[in-house]
Each structure stands twice: as structure tokens, then as C-alpha cells.
């Protein structure tokens, strides 16, 4: 309480005394006990009223013992069970929970993890994926601004996510407890298979296999690739202590159209501890023909190379770069991309008026907009020779095809001539143009359908910067390449618009979360967020059918399946009100990545400990770890002084006392006839 508050309280008491004396005793004919009682009650009332108005704040101090947080993460994945380390996990947890010094000095938080992180309940070691990297984010969120040592009980075999070795910060020391036997055992393994998801009929396609060997003696192994029970490739591979890894490339014939499932197997005459990692399946979609795309431009620009690389990420697409004077027949192409057209493109526009190919027009600083006004009616351009930068603004009600916001607002602006673009009003705009962060109604990326022809417009050059930004932010070109793939797919197909769109993969590995996304549009092709979508999923081998409902999520509906057994599945998506239906199918491959390990990843766990100033321990050394933590002065409990400030107005009994004083005064006056 400050000196100013004390002065105000003193004045309040004096004023209360003066007012009470003046009201009851100053001009009283007699000063009996009755008047002194009334004066005293009035004095208390005035004092309480003044005190509540001044509202002084009282501070109290108390001391608390703050323990150091100790998060303990237990690996609950299948690989722990395969390494016969379940009892090790339980023994480590029991030792931590029963250690007196640890309980005295630390605030223990126990979690279990596989592909997800949850509070500890019970361990079943059935996790289909392991993601250690996410543990660092959990520690940051739960123990922000605190130095919390982490006990990580795991085999270190991560199957999903980024490298966990560099995910933890230096002020979060990690003490891995390594599960499983680190002794070297003989093992042959197929680490990885690189293959394009598409191949063309009657062509050969390459398959790259990364093989490894854990052992010291020289051995001969046999590598086989099978398709539908037949061996399609076979060769011998040799390993020894100096050559423990091999990269083998084989070429396979694409003789049958459709999805072809292959299985690569690496075997030898020696006895192995784990043979589940000797085989790995892969799938190739053999297609009859590819979509031909002509990119026509009379100038050289980085956009052309970026478009070609992006579009050809899909092996079903083939891009040919041409100049307007080098093309005589458009009929051999499915889609044409006209880059910054000028009067030299007149022949192409005239020919395409008859062919009605899907067309994507991209404008820029070298575009002749007067010519463009004369050859199309979708937009009217009133442009000058000045250049302006236009940033993308995502349109959430776009419905020509299924496209999510891939953080378009972070993409760099495109350059185009400055002016006004007036549309016919029937286009479907994916991106609007922003000028210096000011939203406009001008389209930046829009699409138009007319009869059986589809057209797209991008009003700006330097789209190559978008592809680079996509890589810088996501460490992958995937988002941008998927956008261009959807644009080409949209332009290459006819204009029969579906009201129910479904997005899913054709193949999944066993243990993965399988997600299917759907969008439903009403008769005006507007997204209907009140749609009721359900899916009927059928296992083709067992004929078992299960029904699920979609959940609403960000202008789409999603449903996820977990722990589906390997096999072929078909599904039917139905919208309840309109009875609209769409079907599809996918396959879950019999490949469990958690069963690919024969040893814990001791090297990576040791490197993790070194990077975070921690130390590696084994389950039989758990007492040493607990003793080390208990004796470490950095983790000792801290006594903290807690100051609690409480304003007087929060004391409810003061208000009750004021009411009681006023009520008693009124009763005495009433009883004595003074009212």
C-alpha cells in the first residue's frame, strides 16, 4: 500500500468522523447512548463507503517450490515389439516413477508416441509409424521458456517426418534410453526403390533399388522382381565388409496397360534374423498415351522452362516448346499454352477456333493486348505501356476444380502491363489481383468454359518465381506442380462439369492414414457447405462393407481411414439430399515399414544426445541416468516468491458489513421514532 493511499484513508476516517458528529451530535438536544450508537453506525458506514471508493490494494507474499519439468517419452511403435524390448520400456518407466529423488526434484510428465503423441495410458506397441521429430514441438509448447531435460525411451527408428537429430534445441538436453540389442546381426535389406509412378505401353521403364547388407563375410544374394507370380527380372548381387551397400538399376517392360504391382525380393542361403525387410512392393501405372501440350512463345523466358518442368512431373504429360512460325498443325496436341501472344499468333487462334483445344493464355510485358482484344471475347483489355506488379489473392469460392490455398499470399507478384481488365462475368476466378496489398476485382488466374472448350488466363509473367517460392517454403515443388497439373487436367478434359469431386491416391502403404477429400456443388456450381456426404467402403477380398460420414474442413469434406489391412478397396461417395454418387478404388500395399529394422538406430540417438548436450543410456543403466539428473545442479528445484495483489473492492464481506450498518441504523431510528 502506497503512502498516497494511506493519506487518503486517513482523510476518509476524519471526514467520516466529522460527518457523523455533525449529523447526530452537533445540534442534538440530548447526547444519550442512543445518539452515540447512531453516530457510531453512521461513522462505520461512511468509513466503509470511502474505503470502497479508494479501493486500496493489499499485497501478500508466499513462497512456492518450482520443480524442473521432466518429460518422459515412451516409444509405442511395432518396431519396439519386433526388437523384443517391451519389458525394457516397462522397467524404465517403473524405475522413473519409483525413484524418490526424481519425484522430489522433478515434475514428471509421461507421454507415449508412435505417429501421434498422447499422454501415457497403456502401451500396446502397435503403432504403425514412428515420428520422433514432432516431440521437439511438444516440448516447446508445454514447457516454454523452461529448461526441461527429456528422457527419450526409443529404438531410434523413425519412419515418418524430418530428421529428428537436429529438431531439438540446445537448451533442451535429450537423454535417449536405447531399446533393443545393438549387437550386429546378419541382415539383407531393400532400403529404397526409386521408380516413376507412370510408364508408357510397350516401353521400358527404369527401376532403381538401394540394397544394404549388415555383416562381415562375403555373400552372394539373389535379387528378383516379380509381377503376378512371374519373375520379370533377376540378377546376382555380392556383398562383403567393404561393400555393404549396392545400387542396382533394372529395366522392365511395360506390356500390360493399367496398374501393375511388382514385388522386389533380396534373398540368400544364409539365415537372417529378420526377413520382412527383404521384400518391398511398388506399383507402376502403365498408360496407353500421354497428353501432348504445346507451349508457344516468340520470346525466351524462364517461365517456359519452369512450366515444362512442372507439367512434365506428371509422366502422362509431354511438353513441346515451339515458336509461332514453327507450328503448322495444332491437331496433334491436346492443350496449347500461348505465352504472351502477339499478331504472329493469329494463325494459331484461327486454327484453334475450329479445333477448340484447351487453351491457356499467359500475358506479360511483351503481350500485344490490342491483338488479344481482337481474337477473343472473354476479356476486354484497356492497358498502357506502364508495368505493374500484381500479387495473388486466393478466391475461396472457386469451383472449377478442387484446389486448396497453397499460401498464395506468400507468392511473389507477377508483372503485367498496367490497366483495366473487364470480363464477361462468366469466368471462374481462382486468383484475384492485388496491387500493393490493395484488393481489386481484376482476375489474375481465371478460367472460362464455352461449349466443349475450356480456356485459362494468367495475367502476369514470372510464374517461375512462384515455383521457386513453393520450394523455399515447403522444401518441395509439389504444391506448385500439383497446381499446374490440375490446370492442364482441367483444360484437357471436356466441359461436363461434375457436382461431386473426389480427390484420393490410388495406392497406400499399410499403416498409413488414408485420406479422401470431396467437394459438392449445387446447381449453380457453388460450393455447398451444407451437403451431407457419406462413403461406403468395401474390401474386395472379404466383401466387408463399412459406412462413414465426411467431416467439414476448409471448403471441403474429408474422411480418414486408419489401420486398414492390405488389399483392394472400392468405395462409393453419396450426397444424401441429391442422391449424387461418385465411385473409385484404391489398394493398400502389404508393406509394414515398422518391421524393417533388426537393430536400434544407436548412431542417430548418440548424435541427438551430442547435439543437445545430453547423453545416451541403455535400459540397464537407468539408475545411473536418474542419479545423474538428481545430482545435476542445473535441475534443482527453485524457491519462488509469489506476490498476490488483491484490491479491497473484492472483499465481499465489506459490502455485507456496510449493508448491515445501514440496516441497523435504520432499525434503531425507526424503533425510536426518529424517521
Please give the structural blueprint.
Layout: H1 3-24, H2 33-54, E1 57-66, E2 68-75, H3 78-82, H4 86-98, H5 100-105, E3 106-113, E4 117-119, H6 135-142, E5 150-154, E6 174-178, E7 187-195, E8 198-200, E9 204-214, E10 219-227, E11 230-239, E12 245-253, E13 258-267, E14 279-287, E15 291-296, H7 302-311, E16 317-322, E17 335-339, H8 346-355, E18 358-363, H9 369-375, E19 379-394, E20 414-423, E21 428-435, E22 438-450, E23 453-459, H10 464-474, H11 478-492, E24 500-503, E25 507-509, E26 514-520, E27 533-539, E28 545-549, E29 551-552, E30 557-561, E31 567-575, E32 581-589, H12 602-611, H13 622-631, E33 638-647, H14 652-671
Parallel strand pairs: 2-3, 2-5, 5-6, 8-14, 15-16, 15-17, 17-18, 18-23, 25-32
Antiparallel strand pairs: 1-33, 3-4, 7-9, 9-12, 10-11, 10-13, 13-14, 19-20, 19-21, 21-22, 22-23, 24-26, 26-30, 27-28, 27-31, 29-30, 31-32
Helix pairs in contact: 1-2, 2-14, 10-11
Amino acid at each position: 500500500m502506497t503512502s498516497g493511499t494511506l493519506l487518503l484513508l486517513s482523510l476518509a476516517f476524519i471526514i467520516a468522523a466529522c460527518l457523523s458528529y455533525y449529523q447526530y451530535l452537533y445540534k442534538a438536544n440530548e447526547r444519550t447512548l442512543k445518539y452515540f450508537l447512531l453516530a457510531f453506525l453512521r461513522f462505520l458506514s461512511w468509513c466503509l463507503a470511502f474505503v470502497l471508493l479508494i479501493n486500496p490494494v493489499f499485497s501478500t507474499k508466499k513462497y512456492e517450490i518450482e520443480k524442473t519439468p521432466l518429460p518422459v517419452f515412451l516409444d509405442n511403435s511395432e518396431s519396439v515389439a519386433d526388437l523384443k524390448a517391451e519389458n525394457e520400456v516397462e522397467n524404465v518407466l517403473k524405475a522413473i516413477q519409483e525413484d524418490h529423488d526424481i519425484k522430489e526434484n522433478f515434475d514428471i510428465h509421461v507421454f507415449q508416441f508412435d505417429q501421434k503423441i498422447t499422454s501415457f495410458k497403456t502401451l500396446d506397441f502397435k503403432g504403425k509409424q514412428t515420428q520422433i521429430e514432432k516431440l521437439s514441438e511438444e516440448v516447446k509448447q508445454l514447457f516454454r521458456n523452461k529448461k526441461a531435460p527429456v528422457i527419450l525411451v526409443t529404438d531410434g527408428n523413425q519412419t515418418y517426418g524430418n530428421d529428428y537429430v537436429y529438431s531439438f534445441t540446445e537448451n533442451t538436453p535429450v537423454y535417449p534410453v536405447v531399446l533393443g540389442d545393438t549387437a550386429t546381426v546378419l541382415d539383407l535389406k531393400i532400403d529404397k526403390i526409386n521408380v516413376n509412378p507412370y510408364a508408357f505401353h510397350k516401353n521400358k521403364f527404369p527401376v532403381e533399388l538401394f540394397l544394404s547388407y549388415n555383416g562381415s563375410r562375403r555373400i552372394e544374394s539373389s535379387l528378383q522382381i516379380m509381377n503376378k507370380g512371374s519373375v520379370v527380372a533377376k540378377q546376382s548381387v555380392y556383398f562383403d565388409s567393404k561393400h555393404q551397400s549396392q545400387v542396382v538399376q533394372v529395366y522392365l517392360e511395360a506390356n500390360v496397360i493399367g496398374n501393375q504391382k511388382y514385388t522386389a525380393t533380396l534373398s540368400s542361403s544364409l539365415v537372417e534374423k529378420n526377413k520382412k525387410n527383404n521384400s518391398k512392393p511398388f506399383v507402376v501405372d502403365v498408360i496407353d498415351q500421354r497428353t501432348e501440350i504445346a507451349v508457344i512463345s516468340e520470346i525466351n523466358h524462364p517461365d517456359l522452362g519452369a512450366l515444362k518442368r512442372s507439367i512434365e512431373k506428371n509422366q502422362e504429360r509431354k511438353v513441346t516448346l515451339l515458336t509461332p512460325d514453327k507450328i503448322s498443325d495444332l491437331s496433334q496436341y491436346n492443350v496449347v499454352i500461348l505465352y504472351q501472344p502477339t499478331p504472329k499468333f493469329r494463325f494459331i487462334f484461327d486454327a484453334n477456333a475450329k479445333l477448340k483445344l484447351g487453351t491457356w493464355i499467359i500475358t506479360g510485358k511483351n503481350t500485344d493486348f490490342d491483338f488479344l482484344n481482337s481474337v477473343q471475347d472473354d476479356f476486354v483489355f484497356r492497358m498502357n505501356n506502364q508495368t505493374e506488379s500484381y500479387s495473388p489473392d486466393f478466391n475461396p469460392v472457386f469451383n472449377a476444380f478442387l484446389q486448396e490455398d497453397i499460401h498464395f499470399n506468400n507468392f511473389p507478384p507477377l508483372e503485367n502491363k498496367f490497366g483495366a481488365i473487364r470480363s464477361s462475368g462468366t469466368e471462374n476466378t481462382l486468383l484475384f489481383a492485388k496491387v500493393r496489398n490493395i484488393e481489386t476485382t481484376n482476375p489474375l488466374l481465371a478460367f472460362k468454359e464455352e461449349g466443349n472448350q475450356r480456356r485459362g488466363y494468367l495475367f502476369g509473367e514470372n510464374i517461375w518465381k512462384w515455383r521457386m517460392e513453393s520450394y523455399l517454403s515447403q522444401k518441395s515443388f509439389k504444391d506448385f506442380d500439383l497446381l499446374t497439373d490440375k490446370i492442364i487436367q482441367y483444360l484437357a478434359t471436356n466441359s461436363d462439369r461434375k457436382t461431386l469431386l473426389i480427390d484420393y491416391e490410388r495406392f497406400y502403404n499399410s499403416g498409413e492414414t488414408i485420406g479422401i477429400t470431396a467437394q459438392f456443388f449445387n446447381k449453380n456450381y457453388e460450393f455447398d457447405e451444407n451437403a451431407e456426404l457419406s462413403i461406403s467402403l468395401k474390401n474386395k477380398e472379404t466383401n466387408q462393407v463399412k459406412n462413414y460420414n465426411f467431416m467439414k474442413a476448409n471448403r471441403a469434406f474429408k474422411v480418414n481411414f486408419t489401420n486398414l489391412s492390405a488389399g483392394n478397396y472400392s468405395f462409393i461417395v453419396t450426397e444424401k439430399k441429391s442422391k449424387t454418387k461418385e465411385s473409385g478404388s484404391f489398394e493398400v500395399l502389404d508393406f509394414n515399414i515398422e518391421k524393417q529394422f533388426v537393430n536400434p538406430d544407436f548412431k542417430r540417438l548418440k548424435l541427438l544426445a551430442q547435439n543437445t548436450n545430453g547423453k545416451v543410456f541403455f535400459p540397464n543403466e537407468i539408475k545411473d541416468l536418474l542419479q545423474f539428473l538428481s545430482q545435476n545442479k542445473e535441475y534443482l528445484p527453485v524457491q519462488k516468491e509469489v506476490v498476490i495483489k488483491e484490491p479491497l473492492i473484492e472483499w465481499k464481506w465489506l459490502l455485507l458489513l456496510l449493508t448491515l450498518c445501514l440496516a441497523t441504523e435504520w432499525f434503531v431510528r425507526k424503533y425510536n421514532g426518529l424517521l
